[in-house]
Design brief:
The chain contains 8 helices and 10 strands. It is an alpha+beta fold. A hairpin with an 8-residue loop joins strand 7 and strand 8. Helix 6 packs across helix 7. The longest helix has 26 residues.
């Protein structure tokens, strides 16, 4: 009898610990801006296109947009639109997208994406395996049409996706390779779609075999590995810690990228 009570207590303890970990993990899905909302209307209209370094930093804190994104906006009014969305929060729900993984999606007004270019990388923390946030990554292969290439989920081959899905993540970052022109970044995107589309998902890639292979011979990949291999094949190692396995966080922390935009990451 005592043994049964002990086992029941252990079971309840495990359930309680797991529930607590899920509650904690959900709180990380969206982190509001760290700064208070300020009036940037003068920057938007009076000084548009003539910003100092300090102006760019203020705009980043108010919109999540980096310098290159600000410079590519079609009109000053858009700055205020990005600011309003940046500070309006994100109501989200959590969905199971495989037998072992989950992701959060905004249930209300979607986020706004900065103007994208071919070769841009998108990273989100809105994906987790039970209580471990593994994140997700993608590469933009056709910015004009709004198309990414992604190793989407365990059990399915890599494939193209509509960029609009990224406006539904409660947090994301847009990254762009530093020191490379638009043509070179587009070439990286081209090599990705030509060689890494319809590749089986392999979660252990790099653990039991080398994570690097000739891009044309890739036989397995996962979301961060796909993006990494596209860049590695063109001479850029975007794995910030150069470990056996590359993760979305490793890519996010790479000093080879500039941050074009962040949303929901604090």
């Amino acid at each position: 009898m005592k043994k049964n009570i002990f086992l029941i207590c252990i079971l309840y303890g495990i359930i309680a610990a797991y529930s607590s970990s899920l509650y904690y993990i959900e709180a990380q899905a969206y982190i509001p801006p760290l700064s208070e909302k300020r009036d940037i209307s003068l920057l938007a209209f009076t000084s548009y296109g003539q910003y100092s370094d300090g102006d760019y930093e203020l705009i980043r804190s108010q919109t999540g947009l980096g310098r290159s994104a600000v410079d590519s906006l079609a009109s000053p009014q858009r700055l205020l639109e990005y600011q309003d969305r940046y500070f309006s929060g994100a109501d989200f729900t959590c969905h199971m997208n495989s037998p072992v993984s989950f992701e959060e999606r905004i249930s209300g007004t979607p986020a706004l994406l900065a103007p994208l270019e071919d070769g841009d990388v998108l990273v989100t923390n809105s994906s987790h395996v039970f209580s471990w946030r593994n994140g997700h990554a993608a590469i933009v292969v056709d910015a004009e049409k709004g198309v990414t290439l992604e190793a989407v989920v365990i059990g399915s081959n890599s494939r193209t996706q509509d960029i609009s899905k990224w406006t539904r993540y409660p947090n994301f970052a847009v990254l762009r390779l530093k020191g490379a022109d638009k043509k070179e970044r587009a070439e990286i995107a081209r090599s990705a779609i030509e060689n890494l589309d319809d590749i089986p998902y392999k979660v252990t890639i790099g653990l039991f075999s080398s994570k690097y292979s000739d891009i044309s011979l890739a036989s397995g990949t996962q979301c961060a590995h796909l993006v990494w291999l596209a860049y590695a094949a063109n001479g850029y190692d975007i794995d910030s810690n150069h470990g056996l396995i590359v993760t979305p966080e490793d890519i996010l922390e790479s000093d080879l990228f500039e941050q074009v935009q962040t949303f929901g990451m604090g």
